[in-house]
Known about the structure:
The protein starts with 16 loop residues before the first strand and ends with a helix. Strands 1, 2, 3, 4, 5 and 6 form a six-stranded antiparallel sheet that branches. The chain is of the alpha+beta class. It has one domain (13-150): Hotdog Thioesterase (Thiol Ester Dehydrase, Chain A), CATH 3.10.129. A hairpin with a 2-residue loop joins strand 4 and strand 5 (114-127). It contains three helices and six strands. The protein is 25% helix and 36% strand.
Amino acid sequence: xxxxxxxxxxxxxxxxxxxxxxxxxxxxxxxxxxxxxxxxxxxxxxxxxxxxxxxxxxxxxxxxxxxxxxxxxxxxxxxxxxxxxxxxxxxxxxxxxxxxxxxxxxxxxxxxxxxxxxxxxxxxxxxxxxxxxxxxxxxxxxxxxxxxxxxx
Length: 152
């Protein structure tokens, strides 16, 4: 696996959707830094907000009434610098690839201009009733295409 190089916040596309998360006591391990697994919780929260605020889609409706899973087939991250309680970490979402039943998303997190992490999440749409992958729903595919065109 190749390590990603840190990318400065100013190098991200201006149109990339961003959200800032306050690092709380509950995010930190006994060393006083964000426990790596909590970063994955933060990233999923950022994706949920990206659905609503940028794509105009209700993430929770996919899982609830629509019975469409939005799980990750792959999730990896490169960590560049620790984040500590009280930091404000800004996450930006980029779309790397739109597949038949999956989305490959790149997330970049920064504290100011300082890179904190870079992650790749491969989200797969699944039937929560049949427990198998299904094609990306048309509304999700269209929204992600619009986002990707606005934010290459």
